[in-house]
From TrEMBL:
It comes from Desulfocicer vacuolatum DSM 3385. The gene is infC. It is found in: Cytoplasm. IF-3 binds to the 30S ribosomal subunit and shifts the equilibrium between 70S ribosomes and their 50S and 30S subunits in favor of the free subunits, thus enhancing the availability of 30S subunits on which protein synthesis initiation begins. Residues 102-186 form the Translation initiation factor 3 C-terminal domain. Pfam families: IF3_C, IF3_N. Belongs to the IF-3 family. Transmembrane segments: none annotated. Residues 25-94 form the Translation initiation factor 3 N-terminal domain. Monomer. Keywords: Cytoplasm, Initiation factor, Protein biosynthesis. Signal peptide: none annotated. GO terms for biological process: ribosome disassembly. GO terms for cellular component: cytosol; membrane. This is Translation initiation factor IF-3.
C-alpha cells in the first residue's frame, strides 16, 4: 500500500525536497536556543527561539536558519522572499558564466587531398575559435583499412596545419574501422 502511494506521488510530479536543501524559517526551526544575527548584520546573541521569533516579528521580517549544523544553530532576521530571490539570481549568474564547450566532428578519408584538408582546417579553426573541441575522424571503407600508414600521415598533416591555434588532446588511435584524434584550443 505504501509503495503504491509513493509511486503515485512521483507520477503526479510531487518532488520531495532533500534535508540538505531545506531552509527552516520561523516556526519550522526546531532548536530550543539559537544564535541570532540582526537584520543589519550585527550579532544579537544566543537566545531562546521564542524570543528570537518575537524580535523578528518586531521588524516584520522572518527568522531564517542560516547554519543549522552549528551549536547552537545560527539564525538571521531577514526578508525570506528577498533572500530566495537573491539566491536564484546568484545561481542564474553562475550558470551564465559557466563555460560550455562541445565536441565538433570533422570527417576525412585516407585519400583526402591537400586542398580538401585545407578546407577542413578552416572549419576546425572556426570551431576552435568558438572554444569547442574538434574530433577529427578518419573513416575507412572496404579495403582502405590497409592504408593505415597513409591515414596516420593525413592526421599528422591536420595536426601540423592546426598547431598554431590548436593542441592535440588525444593522439590518433584506432577504433574499429575509424581512426580518431581530438584537438582542443590552446
Amino acid at each position: 500500500m505504501f509503495w503504491i502511494r509513493q509511486k503515485n506521488t512521483r507520477r503526479c510530479g510531487i518532488a520531495r525536497q532533500s534535508n540538505r536543501d531545506r531552509i527552516n524559517i520561523n516556526r519550522g526551526i526546531r532548536a530550543e536556543e539559537v544564535r541570532v544575527i540582526g537584520a543589519d548584520g550585527e550579532q544579537i546573541g544566543v537566545m531562546p527561539i521564542r524570543n528570537a521569533l518575537e524580535k523578528a516579528a518586531e521588524h516584520s521580517l522572518d527568522l531564517v536558519e542560516v547554519s543549522p549544523n552549528a551549536k547552537p544553530p545560527v539564525c538571521k532576521i531577514m526578508d525570506y522572499g528577498r533572500y530566495k530571490y537573491e539566491l536564484t539570481k546568484k545561481l542564474q549568474e553562475a550558470r551564465k558564466k559557466q563555460k560550455t564547450s562541445q565536441i565538433k566532428e570533422i570527417k576525412v578519408r585516407p585519400k583526402t587531398d591537400t586542398h580538401d584538408l585545407e578546407t577542413k582546417v578552416k572549419h576546425i579553426a572556426k570551431f576552435i575559435g568558438n572554444n569547442d573541441k574538434v574530433k577529427v575522424t578518419l573513416v575507412f571503407r572496404g579495403r582502405e583499412i590497409t592504408l593505415a600508414k597513409q591515414a596516420r600521415l593525413v592526421l599528422e598533416k591536420v595536426a601540423q596545419m592546426t598547431e598554431e591555434f590548436a593542441q592535440i588532446e588525444q593522439h590518433a588511435k584506432f577504433e574499429g574501422r575509424t581512426m580518431t584524434m581530438i584537438l582542443s584550443p590552446k
